[in-house]
């Protein structure tokens, strides 16, 4: 059984957060541990090469289904995965996972998945920021009716609204990037005391540092088996990204409504079709972004609740509740960032409709306040003032 995104439109082809990606991350963590032992001189280099080759030779998709089916017996997927990996390299089975516990490997694997998800989301958020900046610049001086509490309020500019999108997207991109770069290795052994690692070497922290280096992960001062800050921060960053994209979608959905008609989503073959009403062009990208904005806070709440229920040196159920929630939240961020970038890059603006709506709602409107100056300040603060096509962080 593999989740292929049947009930998650937009996620088809996701190879960053799906079950196979998680399994591959588990294997990466186990292989890197053997390589760390080789770096420390505890096992010969050819042994690490043999374990790596055995892991590469495993067929990930059927193995994922098998591990999923067998995981219930031990309560986590690491135990059946180890059986498969050790079975593939029986002559070196003793060095695989030596000194570790399941939580070390599963947490580290999830960190690898979350790091990849953060990188993917940040890249697409960068695209979304650049597109929002172009819209803000293009419509810096385009008068529009500002709406507060769902009613026409005062004149602003369409560019000022787009600058608001840019502010949220830029902050989310920064948060996601910073959190992704800081996600740490997980270690600690059976109860956070590293006794298993200490049986392998007189310098357990040197071995742990070598493991972190093999995976490119920072090594925290101590274990975080029950100190779930890395996961709660990651979930907060992903949730913020989903909220920023949801804000854009909400404005676009408002702008595409009949009677408003100021905005249109980018067209593509088959997009927005209705099974019953062929005359419709549904704003599907914004609909899917709104789905994410609705779902993400509840997933983040599950992660936060689990963190608050962590107990003793290993959680009894709270840890288990995190896995699917944080993975699903990462998937929402990855997919939404891609869809959001596509939406903003192709968003169509009907300036005639914008002007007509302003005249109808505020016939005596005069001026737009300091809205153009707001646009300029946001563009400068986010690094988009100099070159319309390049973000300063991407140059």
UniProtKB/TrEMBL annotation:
Family, as annotated: Belongs to the class-II fumarase/aspartase family.
Keywords: Isomerase, Lyase
Domain of life: Bacteria
GO molecular function, one term: isomerase activity
Domain Fumarate lyase N-terminal: 29-292
Stated name of the protein: 3-carboxy-cis,cis-muconate cycloisomerase
Pfam family, one: Lyase_1
Keyword match Isomerase: yes
